Fold each of these.
Amino acid sequence: IVEDELIIAESLKRLLINLGHRCVDSADSFLVAENTLKNKFFDLVLLDINLNGKNEGIELGELCNKNGQPFLYISSYSDRDTVLAAKKTKPGGYINKPFTPKEVMIGIEMATINRNVQNQTSLKSAVAHLDLSEREMEVLQCVYKRFLNTEIANDLSISTHTVKYHLKNLYSKFDVTSRVDFLQKLEHMIE
């Protein structure tokens, strides 16, 4: 979350948690946000456009777009010039303040759907050279979506024991020993 108004940032953080998401970082200024975005990758970034009286959120949107980082704007500005400037950065969405929980939920879903489709295609291309079974590919895609083992089992209608079996095979094929290493290697392969 990049938001210079503490009350709104905290409100967004609570809302994300209530929607089943995690807020892993936040920034209240351009410089902090820029540094964070240059050094970390997030599933989605929520950007305020007007930070400390300037349209620095647009610059951050350009940085996100350049780095392939999914983002959406949350702003009280809806004038034509601001919206056109924001549009050029290709955000996943634009939510006007004041916002409702439903608007934020819909914005997040819309902003992440395109990334998921693009990444699934990229993921398949990146691992095409490996000898993965159809089920291993399904498990791999679920892991890439950050599903837990129980969620993978439910999604694929298999037992958690079977999920662990496929993960063991995948870790071996990718020469990793943990889920964190596995995800990092997948992200690197897609880049």
Amino acid sequence: FQAEDGIRDRSPSRGLGDVYKRQENADVIDINGNEGKQYVSFKIAEETYILDIRKVREFITYERITFIPNLPEYYKGVINLRGSIIPVMDLRLRFGYEQLDCHERTVIMTLNIGDKLLGLVVDKVLDVLHLPEDRIQPPPETEKVIERQFLEGICEWQDEMLILINLDTLFDQDPSLQLIEETQHSITPIQ
């Protein structure tokens, strides 16, 4: 099934004849009246992460990123997307995984976080999932409080653990964004 936005939908309860009504707030109701939300699933290393589809603006193939000095290594730099300068974070590095070379399946997800447009480098985008809200459990207690705050929840689905990322917390508590925003104002995109 190809969604309106070009993303394949692998909704868990989907069978022949199932029809979904996509609402503006991304809540979904299937023909059985089950409520849920739509999430984009993607891979970082061997783990599957999900985030609310309402935050995703678009997916673009990995392209040249302009390096900005003095940023943490998990920021790759900025890209010019149709005249908008967008900071790009490598989620693999932000979450403590080893760095990999980018390849043809590496994707930048552009996200709307508040009034900001930001990019996330992920290993591979998988699907759009329809998940009942009651399947998302609070994140487990961990010794690393900082990492736990980036998690909104965990969901076990089809023998796989899905990790729901709290994007607001991930970006709100990042002092590097201040430096990037200051840099953005001094860069004039070349059209």
Amino acid sequence: ACSRISRLADGTITDILATGENAGFSDIEGIDFSLAYSFPEFDFGQFKARLDTTYFISEESQNLAFNPTQPFQYHRNNPVNSTVGLYGGRGGTTNRVKANFTVDWSLGPWSATWLARYTSRAVESCPAAYLNPANYPAGSSIICTQATLRDANGGLLARNDIGGTTYHDLTAAYVTPWDSTIRVGINNAFA
């Protein structure tokens, strides 16, 4: 970073080279699946159900390495990262499976929706500080679920499993006689 800043002998900044860092490539492969069904209309309303699911097969990316002596010349010498099921990475998580299941109900001007949002488990690395019992209050345990995991060379590869989660959202709506909709809802009503 300092090589991108030019200064005079007295320390005054004369130029800052502020270039963006570009991804060399990002390759995502997956399968999308959708299923929808409208039930017959009953006296107590119309029901519809929908399932939208994505299964990520792979997600790989590689950043281009920045060369400060040749600022607009990049080369690919960084490792290829495979991030499906890993927490973090490029600032987010690509869970293996993500799914939304929706049930809609309507009767005249009234409607309601229940949405269940599912994300499968992920794994995060455990920093060394998380593995030291001295960093925890008395009587508590280390939060890493696989604190003693080792790689093929015997190096510590501690991880923490983050279980899959389903969030439930609820919405109710009313269409007014003046062609407006009043809608109320609760996100994460229960998990």
